[in-house]
Amino acid sequence: MKRAGSMLAAAVLVLVFTGTLAAQERSDFEVVRSFERESKELQKLIDSARTVQDCADISVTIDHMHEVYAIDRELLDKSLYGENFEERITRLRVQLRLNQDKLGVIESQVSRIADLETQVRALSSQVERLSEDNTQLMADIERMSANVKGLSAAGMATNTMIDSLKGVIGKLQQGLRERDELIFALVDSMFMQYDKEIAQMGDSEKRGLVMKLDRNNVVQGIKSSIESNLRFLSRTELKGTDLASVLSEQNKFEAQWRGLGPKLTLLYVNNKNRAKELAAVDTLLKAWSARAAEAYWRGLNAAFTSRQIAVSQFMNGSEFAANLTAYIDSQMVVERPGDENKRTFESFQSAWIEEVRAAWMPLMVSRGDLTPEQQRTLEEKVESWKSSVTPTSPVTYLFIFIAIVAILAVAYTQLKRRPLPPTS
Amino acid sequence: MKQLAAIALLTAVGCSTLTLVPADFSWPVESELTADNAGMVKEDRYHMAFNVKPLMFDELQDSVNISGKTFRVIRDRSGNYFVTGPKFKHVYVFVHGNAGLEQTNKIMINEAGMANPAFNQRIPYIQLINGREKPVLLTRDGIQQQPK
Predict the structure, then answer these.
(1) Per the domain annotation, does B3 fall within a domain?
(2) What residue numbers bound the domain in which B137 lies?
(3) Which residues does chain A have within 8 Å of residue B28's beta carbon, measured at their own beta carbons?
């Protein structure tokens, strides 16, 4: 049974990846021969199918074959012996349906799983495509960074060059994020086909799921995702919000892995090589987390240092809150002309509003680096500094004056309307 | 005189051959045929068999080591058979003869020999492909379109 299962998976694999012949001039004979061979293999798969997942796999493979060979319909119509292209496909579908009936498999179950399997295959090819794109973008970044560095040293790097490099970095960051999302969506679609916890799965279901995971290189794909993110962090010098989003992505990935990792460990309990790979994923994830955290604190410090704001360096949330409070306190008591006070505050405010509050604070709170209480205290501190440096506007004085006049007018009117006490 | 004319007419009708046109003898795809120990190849779908020993000798000067050798065969719309095989420098053109195939042309394709030739039916031509080389279009008279 185990052997039959392996053969089934191997055959499906062959069917999925053949069919499309090389881009060079094709031999019609080869097209016909491939179609015949794949039809025969499908026929064997139908005969050996035992579970609803097997039937769904075959159903998707028939659909795939129909799609791939539709372009050669005319040739196949002429060349097949005794039937045409559509008749051959229909015959396979009918045979699968008969086998499903024999196995007592319900068609709606097959359709649901087949839809998920179609999704898996689509996601798998998207992951593959994105990986290629990301590799290309990474190479572009390396080349462009080297150019910019070389020209910067000679004082010749232009803003356009730096902007294009930033653009490519942004694209790669987006690509990596999409790939990470896709790989977990891919795994979800696989697990959903079984619709039960691993502990409740039978041996053949576990084997089927493992085959699907292996066929789609899931563990390797997850490893590649982390490696790409690590490479990205080491090859780029991100700043501000870009860094915040890298960390946010790392947190998300880690949370998803915490959900998936134990399931994979259970599935690969008897496979030493895969168990090693899973352990490697944990190690890589720790490296990514450390690298991202380092970049995160460096980036957050840079929000101030890049604007020459002398907040003492911090490496955790408490230090951040304490050093920032100390800085504001010191600025509020320092003796200097009013204009200079205002300029210092405005420089701080730009860092505070544009970077720290917009990008970093939500992340810090969600990571637990900063409590909501600490956040509120800091916000109040900044407001208090703001009030101390912002002189009251003449318009405010005008409003106050108008308000006083209005109150006096109302009081006077009231007094005038009150009847005079009778004179004795 | 009238009798003589009638006899001449009858004779003419009796001797004339019928030609059924149009006709299409084309095979939609080529066949890959493998020679047996006796040098015979057999095409099941079209129920034909022929001996390829003379062809092997003509092309490769070897009609001994023939068992298991493969040949590519296709028939064009007019009924000409095009035959070639791996290592062949030529494509041979045959027509049905008296209980055999009679060669009508031998088309030089590649002095070095073809690695993996194959035919496609591209009416009115036969297309010859060979791996990554540019395909050529053939008729019974020879190459109709040289690769650019």
Answers:
(1) no
(2) 23-145
(3) 28, 75, 78-79
